[in-house]
């Protein structure tokens, strides 16, 4: 039938091992795994000989149609998820961020509306929390119990940052809900002071950005929130760990018993930051995000080794794209350059190139850090993040020998440049199957706008993630 598909002769890679089996898919679900499966006549069959079959990527860090720093991201829910599928990512978890005076429930409804009709793969949400009162407390509970939200993100930087007292109370509440706290860890007070000082000295270009928020400013916040996390016994997920010092600090806190997880980004693994200070405004502003991509050229390898060792668990994209014209808002004042970079399409290729092609990660490690660990942490496993009977049929047939060169000329994003421009990557998706439908077919993109479904992320009771 039209709703069935057979994938033959592939090497199936899960985070816990490799097997050689055929996969039979029906109505969007993996129905059977086995050798030489006999299936009814007339169904499509894909020969995956020589390819790896991977669980579709799970990118738990995207900002689509996101209002930030006075503007709105270039990638909307259509372009963002189209780019995702083209690159082998079949699930995203995006950040909802309410407007001032909007309740969390109103924000949730407005984000569902924005996404509906545009998304090309399944999507879940995290909610950003920017204050603390009884209304917020009650709405967080409703989001967990009625709307499939199990994670809340708090900022320690930007004007809407929370102080330690608020963080402490919110983390207690999140623990009681059986949810997960996500933290943007940078010391906002120090950044503001440094920014003022740099601008006064006449350092107004994009090079001022990293100077205002060096590694220890990131690491201090990581340490502080890990201490709070341990005091209140609330699990915490640190988003975008960008520096060696922050990663090491997180690992030390884990060793002391904090239940903390770490996510790094494709940008931090893919870009050698040593070139960054020498770029012109356009290029430097293009790569500008917070926390910054670090100038220390040993950072990407360090973070990759940490992924291998399990000191970091996840690679996200933090896709938060602004066009060249939007980046110019910050010409003459680096603190006004909209923060954010691309990565939704290229995350899988970049991790394969810098991780697997170099021999640091095995294919099973690759699956763990691009799909399985995020699915476990956000409690959508084993529906997502593995190839097993009963799981959603989200799969990537990955050709490890083919190469492609990343370029804005060919990418599926709406944004008008690509931070990985010119990077050659081994590892190309030949086929991407989204909910049982072939959405990349021999490298050709064939998506259906609006076909993605809202993914409820249930709370943990009790908290169960095991690495
Ligand atoms: N950092 C960014 O660079 N963009 C979006 C939000 C954030 O924390
Ligand atoms: Zn952030
Ligand atoms: Zn982000
Ligand atoms: Zn190579």
UniProtKB/TrEMBL annotation:
Record PTM text: Carbamylation allows a single lysine to coordinate two divalent metal cations.
Cofactor list: Zn(2+)
GO function term, MF aspect, one: dihydropyrimidinase activity
Cellular component terms (Gene Ontology): cytosol
EC annotation from Swiss-Prot or TrEMBL: 3.5.2.2
UniProt cross-references to InterPro entries, sorted A to Z: Amidohydro-rel, Hydantoinase/dihydroPyrase, Metal-dep_hydrolase_composite, Metal_Hydrolase, Metallo-dep_Hydrolases_sf
Catalytic activity reported: 5,6-dihydrouracil + H2O = 3-(carbamoylamino)propanoate + H(+)
Keyword terms of this UniProt record: Hydrolase, Metal-binding, Zinc
SUPFAM superfamilies in alphabetical order: Composite domain of metallo-dependent hydrolases, Metallo-dependent hydrolases
Oligomer status and interactors: Homotetramer.
Record's protein name: dihydropyrimidinase
Family matches, as Pfam families: Amidohydro_1 (PF01979)
Chain positions found as N6-carboxylysine: 153
Keyword Transcription included in the entry's annotation: no
Keyword Protein transport: no
Domain Amidohydrolase-related, chain residue ranges per copy: 52-438
């Amino acid at each position: 039938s039209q709703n069935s598909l057979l994938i033959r002769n592939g090497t199936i890679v899960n985070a816990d091992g490799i097997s050689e089996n055929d996969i039979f898919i029906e109505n969007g679900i993996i129905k059977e795994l086995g050798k030489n499966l006999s299936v009814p006549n007339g169904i499509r069959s894909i020969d995956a000989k020589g390819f790896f079959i991977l669980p579709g990527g799970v990118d738990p860090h995207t900002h689509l149609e996101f209002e930030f720093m006075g503007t709105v991201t270039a990638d909307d829910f259509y372009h963002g998820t189209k780019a995702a599928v083209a690159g082998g990512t079949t699930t995203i978890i995006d950040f909802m961020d309410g407007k001032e005076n909007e309740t969390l429930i109103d924000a949730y409804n407005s984000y569902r509306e924005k996404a509906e009709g545009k998304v090309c793969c399944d999507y879940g949400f995290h909610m950003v929390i920017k204050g603390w009162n009884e209304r917020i407390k009650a709405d967080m509970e409703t989001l967990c119990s009625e709307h499939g939200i199990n994670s809340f993100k708090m900022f320690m930087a930007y004007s809407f940052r929370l102080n330690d007292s608020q963080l402490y109370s919110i983390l207690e509440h999140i623990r009681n809900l059986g949810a997960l706290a996500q933290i943007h860890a940078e010391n906002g007070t120090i950044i503001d002071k440094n920014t003022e000082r740099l601008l006064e000295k006449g350092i107004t270009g994009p090079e001022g950005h990293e100077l205002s928020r060096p590694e220890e400013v990131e690491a201090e916040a990581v340490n502080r929130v890990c201490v709070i996390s341990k005091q209140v016994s609330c699990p915490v997920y640190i988003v975008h760990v960008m520096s060696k010092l922050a990663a090491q600090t997180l690992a030390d806190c884990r060793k002391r018993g904090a239940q903390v997880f770490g996510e790094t980004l494709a940008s931090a693994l893919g870009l050698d930051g040593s070139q960054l200070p020498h770029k012109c405004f356009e290029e430097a502003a293009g790569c500008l995000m917070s926390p910054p991509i670090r100038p220390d050229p040993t950072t990407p390898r360090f973070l990759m080794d940490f992924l291998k060792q399990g000191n970091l668990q996840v690679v996200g994209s933090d896709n938060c794209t602004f066009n060249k014209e939007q980046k110019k808002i910050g010409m003459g004042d680096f603190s006004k350059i909209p923060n954010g970079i691309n990565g939704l399409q290229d995350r899988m290729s970049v991790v394969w190139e810098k991780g697997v092609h170099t021999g640091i990660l095995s294919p099973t490690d690759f699956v763990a850090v691009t799909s399985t660990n995020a699915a476990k942490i956000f409690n959508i496993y084993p529906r997502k993040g593995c190839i097993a009977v009963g799981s959603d049929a989200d799969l990537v047939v990955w050709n490890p020998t083919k190469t492609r060169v990343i370029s804005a000329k060919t990418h599926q994003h709406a944004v008008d440049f690509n931070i990985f421009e010119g990077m050659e990557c081994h590892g190309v998706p030949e086929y991407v199957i989204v909910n049982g439908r072939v959405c990349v077919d021999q490298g050709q993109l064939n998506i259906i706008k609006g076909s993605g479904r809202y993914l409820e992320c249930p709370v943990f009771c009790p908290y169960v993630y095991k690495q």
